[in-house]
Structures are given as structure tokens and as C-alpha cells.
Amino acid sequence: MTVPAGRPSPSGPVNQKVSRRAPSATGHGPDSPTVVPELETAILDSAAQWNSDPKPFVWKATAEDIIEKVQRGRAAVTRQIESTADH
Asked: Does residue 33 have a pLDDT over 50?
């Protein structure tokens, strides 16, 4: 998956490196961005690095596993809606 310049991916190295430090974006940790421009620069740098050596996305779940998970999620939401409507 190639990330367009200036548009970081919601997964991949951004999540692994920058997002892990996101709670520290207010300056609560070593080597963490302390202001929005620094965080933005870190995200864009990560996207540029990813684009220079992209890796293909490989599905690890089967289609059946994904469909089953979606069905469980829908059932849970339906139960929640029905529970809320009963009150």
C-alpha cells in the first residue's frame, strides 16, 4: 500500500511509531512531539519513509473469519439498541 504524500495511512508505520507516542503529544514523555506542527512533521516523515519502501498489504484472516466477526458486531449493536429501547 502506497500512502499519497501528505496523506498518512491509518495503519502501518504511523500507528506503530507516531500513534504510540500520541498520548505524549502534550509533552509528557521523552522524545515526544510537544506541539501540533512537530506531530504533523513526524507523521509526514513517517509517510514519506513508508512510501520510499512500501510493503504490500497481506490479509491474514479468511473471508469467513471476517464475515463472522461482522455478524457478531451487528448482533451486539442490535442487542444494544434493543436494550436501550426497552428503557
From this structure: yes
Contact criterion met (CB below 8 Å) for 18 and 10: no
Structural domain count, the chain:
2
* 18 and 31 together in one domain: yes
Question: Which residues form the domain of 73?
Answer: 60-87
Domain check: are 52 and 68 in the same one? no
Q: According to the model, what pLDDT value does residue 68 have?
A: 98
Considering the domain architecture, whether residues 51 and 67 belong to the same structural domain is answered as no
**pLDDT score of 85:** 79
